[in-house]
Fold this protein.
Amino acid sequence: RLVKHGNMRSINQQRNGDSKHAAGPAVSGGFSAAIPGMAETFQLIRDKVSAAGNGSILKRHSGAADIVFVRHKDAKAPEKFKYFCSDFHVHVGRDSKLGQNLSGIDVEVFVNEHKTSLTMQIHEDHRCMFDRGSLKPSPTQIAEVGELLRSGRNSVRYQVLGEKALFEVRAFIYLWNAADKVVVCDIDGTVTRSDFLGYSAHLLGYEYTHDGVTDVLNYLHEAGYRILFLTARPITIADRTRDFLQAVGVSARDDSSQSLARMLGLHTSDTVLGLPHGAMITTAERWVPALLIGLSSDGPRKFKTSVLQEIKSLFGDRECFAGGFGNRSTDSSAYRAAGISVSRIFLVDDNSKVYVGKMEGESQYSSYASLCERLPTLFPPVVSDAFQHDQTLRENGSSNLAQEGHQGISPEDIEKAFSLFGRQDGGGEEEEEVGRTGTGLSLRSSGRRSA
């Protein structure tokens, strides 16, 4: 029967081949056949996509850091704005499997799905640059992009159309205002409980984050602060790092994965509250150079200091940084170099104990949860579009921590409140006064699973 079935299949194939030969070559149907050259164009695009597996070969080794735009009022024309931006760091994957050298190919830039006049070019080191090897577009192009942005998070897409590949790299642009206050947060060891195990735990499907970290960051977001995630991870896993930040709190809702982790004796987070959106900046390096930065004694400090100085320059002469969260002395050094007061630098250890300024002596807070009780005093609500327009928390539960009793505060009041940050007394009479005369902000502990 097998032989007979094989013979029948070959006969059918022969018949189909004969009928195709008799009918002539296949002609594409639809409107593409009616327009000269359209069918060939569609076929070319299909060939490009199939050759690169829809870009999957290259996407695995591609990535882009988020970009920060800061909007200033134009002194000469108050009804207009001036924009300043951080560097555009884009890395395109290696092309050895594709068999095409992408060096010199143009990269088109789309912002909120609008095609812009910005064009980058792939260099030999697989980094994308603007004209003259710059990482920033021209002032005219910066203004063009600024007009396409809405307050908060915006999409940016880098599209590469090579001879054998059609693919894209995605990231986000965050539009902030010159009067905004920014809180910096490290990821590995600060959001996660370990520099090395946190990301691995996420890949295995369970949480290995510090309890209460999502409550802290959600309070800050809803109190009007901008969140900047700063990590020494390589740019080639930027997408996976965004996926990780997006997934925090999701694994905790999956009882099966959490239960399995507990059976293995692994710590699991009990939070089901997700992280707020925030700009995420990685190193501009691939795996090995980024690993060398992370392992060197002074590499992380230099990298983070450089990034924070760049972000600070976008705000002009204003002090933009309100606080910083990390887990190493190098984080503290970088934050201090950026102008953050020691009393607003919080370092967390592997046991989730929180220290102020440096990890010496007794911890000031037993956990992020105990720090939450002091947040309204340490970080009073500020007027910001982050509160008014950037309510983009995912629909996995919003704590609304800062919504109750939120009142408008003038920029002068904000600067007066933050002038106290220069005092390193860790909370004296002036700080207590801020807590008594604040906006009545109440911090509710929300987002944790009930026992």
About this structure: The longest helix spans residues 2-23. The chain has 18 helices and 15 strands.
